[in-house]
Design a protein that fits this description.
The protein contains five helices and seven strands, in the order βαααβββαβαββ. The protein has a seven-stranded mixed β-sheet with strand order 1-2-3-4-5-7-6, sandwiched between helices. The relative contact order is 0.17.
Length: 175
């Protein structure tokens, strides 16, 4: 299927409700089949609540971007720089892709690659040559995607989903 070019732009404060909605929807689509309802509900309440999204949005070292195909929202991206990063890794020389999600109905059209490329472009514009992210060890599609993009594993950390301690593989890319 031919990929349409995405329109990717930074999210403005007046779009926080839409950001919250797409954050919850994409997280559920990605993880609810492999996790308990209780753990999902707890995570969404504690880590993806509207107040939490507002707090993250207010951090000057984080940036959120919406991805549109024509006029339709298809996904979003969250980047962390400096102290906003969830882990102190790679000697502080890298930036973090914390979230990169495409709505399920739009997956398989090359949109994830375009959003990933935009993340690298934004990192380069800030002077970075190294990027990292964490991906759940059981998210095989994402692991394969990042391997195709040239990322290499360099460690792991715990991702707390409700009461479940899960393992994220930390991956990096020098560009």
């Amino acid at each position: 299927m031919e990929s349409l070019k995405l329109n990717i732009h930074q999210i403005q404060r007046n779009n926080i409700n839409a950001l919250h909605a797409v954050s919850v929807q994409t997280f559920k689509e990605t993880f609810e089949k492999q996790n308990t309802e209780e753990n999902m509900e707890r995570y969404l309440k504690e880590q993806l609540s509207q107040n939490q999204i507002k707090k993250e949005f207010s951090d000057k070292n984080s940036a959120f971007y919406f991805a549109y195909s024509k006029d339709t929202l298809v996904g979003y991206l969250k980047l962390n720089f400096n102290e906003a990063q969830r882990e102190a890794v790679l000697d502080g020389k890298a930036f973090e892709i914390e979230r990169i999600y495409i709505l399920k109905v739009f997956q398989g059209r090359g949109f994830g690659s375009q959003l990933f490329d935009k993340a690298l472009e934004l990192g380069k514009a800030r002077g970075y040559q190294l990027m990292w992210l964490g991906v759940w060890e059981l998210n095989y599609n994402a692991l394969e995607f990042y391997k195709r993009k040239g990322l290499e594993p360099f460690g792991s950390h715990v991702f707390q989903l409700g009461k479940d301690r899960q393992t994220d593989i930390l991956m990096q890319l020098r560009f």
